[in-house]
Amino acid sequence: MKTVKYGGIADAHGIESFIPADKMDWAMEMRVHSNRQRHAVLYQIECTQEFADELNRVLDGKPNKQGHVWDEDKRFMIALKKIKGSYANQSGVTDIGLAKGMEKSWKMIPNPDLDPWA
């Protein structure tokens, strides 16, 4: 099965960005480091194209294959949970990579209570 690489920023509120890995740049790392108080992390996953398409539907507020649309205030957290979830390997995520030093934050997010400004 062919896989694709996507990445972006995630924090206490869920996925902030989900883009093809070759589109990631140094500015994303700067944004992560300036938002560490919200446990922002830079991540990259290898997944099936089908999983990436499903995640983009969640993030864009579009219906999934069953016609369900996630609530506006929950879809970013749901997307991160889909990446991290126990079923992720079964549904298309084959690898998760994090920028060095962000492993502890990755384990704690999503959790809006971690945001000191919320």
Structure explained in plain terms:
There is one protein chain. The protein has five helices and five strands; from the N terminus they run E-E-E-H-E-H-H-H-E-H. Helix 2 (49-60) packs antiparallel against helix 3. The chain has one domain. Strand 1 (3-11) and strand 2 form a beta hairpin. It is α+β, with helices and mostly antiparallel strands. The longest helix has 12 residues, at 49-60.
Oligomer: single chain
Q: What is the CA-based Rg, rounded?
A: 14 Å
> Count of helices?
5
Distance from first to last alpha carbon? 41 Å
Output the keywords:
23% strand, globular, 118 residues, alpha+beta
What's the SSE blueprint?
Layout (H helix, E strand, L loop, with lengths): L2 E9 L2 E2 L3 E2 L5 H9 L6 E8 H12 L14 H10 L3 H4 L1 E6 L4 H6 L10
Short description:
The protein has helices at about 25-35, 50-60, 75-85, 90, 105-110; strands at about 5-10, 15, 20, 40-50, 95-100. With about 120 residues, it is an alpha+beta fold.
